[in-house]
Amino acid sequence: MSAAIVHLTEALPHHVLTIAVPSGGLALQGRIQVPGDKSISHRALMLGAIAQGETRIKGLLLGEDPYSTARCFQAMGAKISDLEAEWISVQGLGVGNLQEPTNVLDAGNSGTTLRLMLGLLAAQPDRFFTVTGDDSLRSRPMSRVVQPLTQMGAKIWGRQGNSLAPLAIKGQSLNPIHYASPIASAQVKSCILLAGLMIAGSTSVSEPSLSRDHSERMLRAFGADLSVDPEQCRVTLAGPAQLTGQTVIVPGDISSAAFWLVAAAITPESELVIENVGVNPTRTGILDALALMDADITLENERLVTGEPVADLRVRYRPLRGCRLAGSLIPRMIDEVPILAVAALFAQGKTLIQDAAELRVKESDRLAVMASQLQKLGANVIEHADGLEIEGGTSLQGSQVDSYTDHRIAMSLAIAALRATGTTSIQRAEAAAVSYPDFTKTLAKICHPA
Ligand code: S3P
């Protein structure tokens, strides 16, 4: 029956996801797993590629973004076994030993691939690299990493004052710096730390509030000498470092679980258990935000898996209330703001999301796109320079909306469509495969007529 609710037309060049809500509404029930964490997947492949010896990885995200990372590092000499096997083996080259590739490195849609990789490339003396990405990535700001790397002595060239890919990099022996980042960004922090692996002395980064710390955890596990001052949000790496291959078990991605948390939280008669989700405190802003809205979510079976906290999440429907989300909470839920905006549509009263201007430079301008696409469904959403103002309680009508090729927009709109009357079609729905290739399958499995 659920096939009639969720339908994917895999036409060329773009897929259309159609969601037809039965007149009596629908409910979500089930026990599910989400794909591997995207941030941890990238880092496991990268550190594996530059460590000495073998790294074994289980639970890697088989999405387009980690494939981009794997291809780039294979092109620089890392030996990576079949990504679809249960255990993946990466034979690393040792820090500083990436080979000069014979062609352009293509990071596809992945900002994490490009920005983290830049730190490594800039610090490989006597080698030349060119890097690029898809239309979205070539329009995203690279100056946030090019500028600190240049301060360290890096030689990087690109369009618009070296701020846009394609970029050309002539690897150098770099100098250590302390970089006070003006934004809380794990990509900026990780880029500088990765460069620091090849630099003699202390390389440190501080940020205005704490961004995800997967790099710090994994660098330590691979043997780097790294210290953290949590009060100053400052990380210091003592270089040069040698890394040793490790075993990494990648937990489920809380950014993917977020779609189901919100779907069940806003849909009467729904209850879901999402197993094996990473609950690193630098990533659980979505749980805190939904708690502020009075959602019914519990953590079960909490455990530590290769250095990362993991739990099963149980979510049941309960009426939500609007709230204000701002400040240091935003970096801890940076990728979940679009789906949180969907939750706010079904909360009583107003929700105000502030301090979220970073969303304008993600895979799309997520503030503008979410506001315009939710308005097409009849939502009461106002776009502000640094956030969204959402009045809950307006009923949504099915309509035609567009992902703007952004994976998180495609999936957020699909969840909004579950609570719209009639039929919603999401254009360019194939974008979801960047982080969640089986999103539609899971959606079809858990949706039932109410
Ligand atoms: C990521 C960091 C975040 C996040 C992105 C993944 C990472 O980006 O939005 O999806 O893996 O380091 P910023 O560092 O630009 O905030």
Automatic annotation (TrEMBL):
Monomer. PANTHER family: AROM/DEHYDROQUINATE SYNTHASE (PTHR21090), PENTAFUNCTIONAL AROM POLYPEPTIDE (PTHR21090:SF5). Keywords: Amino-acid biosynthesis, Aromatic amino acid biosynthesis, Cytoplasm, Transferase. Catalyzes the transfer of the enolpyruvyl moiety of phosphoenolpyruvate (PEP) to the 5-hydroxyl of shikimate-3-phosphate (S3P) to produce enolpyruvyl shikimate-3-phosphate and inorganic phosphate. Residues 26-443 form the Enolpyruvate transferase domain. The active site is at 335 (proton acceptor). Its EC number is 2.5.1.19. GO terms for molecular function: 3-phosphoshikimate 1-carboxyvinyltransferase activity. 3-phosphoshikimate binds at residues 38-39, 43, 185, 187, 335, 362. This is 3-phosphoshikimate 1-carboxyvinyltransferase. The gene is aroA. It comes from Almyronema epifaneia S1. Phosphoenolpyruvate binds at residues 38, 111, 140, 187, 366, 408. Pathway: Metabolic intermediate biosynthesis; chorismate biosynthesis; chorismate from D-erythrose 4-phosphate and phosphoenolpyruvate: step 6/7. It is an enzyme of class 2 (transferase). CDD domains: EPSP_synthase. Gene3D superfamilies: Enolpyruvate transferase domain (3.65.10.10). It is found in: Cytoplasm. InterPro entries: Enolpyruvate_Tfrase_dom (IPR001986), Enolpyruvate_Tfrase_sf (IPR036968), EPSP_synthase (IPR006264), EPSP_synthase_CS (IPR023193), RNA3'P_cycl/enolpyr_Trfase_a/b (IPR013792). It catalyses: 3-phosphoshikimate + phosphoenolpyruvate = 5-O-(1-carboxyvinyl)-3-phosphoshikimate + phosphate. Pfam families: EPSP_synthase. HAMAP family: EPSP_synth. Belongs to the EPSP synthase family.
